[in-house]
Design a protein that fits this description.
By secondary structure, the protein is of the alpha/beta class. 44% of the residues lie in helices and 15% in strands. α4 links the parallel β4 and β5. It is globular and about 50 Å long. The N and C termini lie far apart (66 Å).
Length: 261
């Protein structure tokens, strides 16, 4: 009977692409945490060089799995968004609209907003991609992911989000979504990547942040006056998709047309 089982036997998590269950899954630290820990002795000399091989393997795995993706859009948003919420419905509508426009939909592969976008893409017979990450409280990839990869290292995963996307769309989210948003903004601002659309979906949620960027950051000279224009805020899924499609069309005509001036 299920009641007789040790709860530890039912515990499931992923370590990158590896699935572990039971006692083997009980370790709470992550690969990133162990990599960045400040060792008290010189044992790291014998360990860290081998970690480079694992990091290299993750890049190879990601590049190999994603190299033949069609044009894609990365969608970020909170894992805490509930299925019966308006934000979930918006994410599902967005995923379906992107798929109908010919884009694969890339998310972090988790629940909430990520699940909604993957589910929408799946509803519209599009390609639904999930890039998961090893976390202390592992939730695994959602059921609407067609192509899924679990990563150990955040920086490898972030590379995949950027490398294979023609645009970013952010649904409401927390620290993780903000981290991904500002990473994209920094890469575009510093011209580390070709300029691509960064769309924030939900003016009531994102308006205060954008006002702060346009006001405090710009007025105090922390960013240039035009930097806030790298972001577009809208409440319309159709408008968000049009922005992405129009940017792609402009890039096809003149690749420099969408680069920062």
């Amino acid at each position: 009977m299920a009641a007789d089982k040790n709860p530890q036997d039912l515990y499931l998590r992923y370590r990158g692409p590896v699935r572990v269950q039971g006692a083997a899954a009980a370790e709470s630290s992550t690969t990133d945490q162990r990599l960045l820990a400040n060792a008290d002795d010189a044992d790291w000399l014998h360990r860290d060089p081998w970690r480079v091989m694992r990091i290299q393997a993750e890049f190879v795995e990601g590049f190999g799995a994603l190299a033949e993706l069609p044009p894609a859009v990365t969608v970020f948003g909170s894992a805490r968004i509930k299925e019966d919420s308006p934000e979930y419905a918006t994410g599902r509508e967005l995923g379906a609209g992107l798929a109908r426009a010919g884009y694969a939909v890339i998310t972090g592969g988790g629940p909430g907003a990520m699940e909604a976008a993957n589910r929408g893409a799946k509803d519209a017979d599009g390609l639904s991609v999930g890039l998961g990450i090893e976390l202390p409280f592992e939730q695994g990839l959602n059921d609407w992911v067609d192509l899924g990869i679990n990563f150990r290292y955040f920086f490898v995963r972030k590379t995949m989000f950027v490398k294979y996307a023609q645009a970013f769309v952010c649904l409401p989210g927390g620290f993780g979504t903000l981290d991904e948003l500002f990473e994209a903004l920094t890469l575009v601002q510093t011209r580390k990547v070709t300029r691509f659309p960064i769309v924030l979906l939900g003016s009531a949620y994102w308006g205060g942040l954008v006002d702060w960027i346009r006001g405090t950051l710009t007025e105090q000279g922390m960013v240039s006056p035009g930097d806030a224009d790298l972001i577009t805020v809208t409440d319309s899924v159709d408008d968000a998709i049009k922005i992405i499609v129009d940017a792609d069309a402009a890039r096809e005509i003149d690749p420099s047309a969408v680069d920062p001036s």
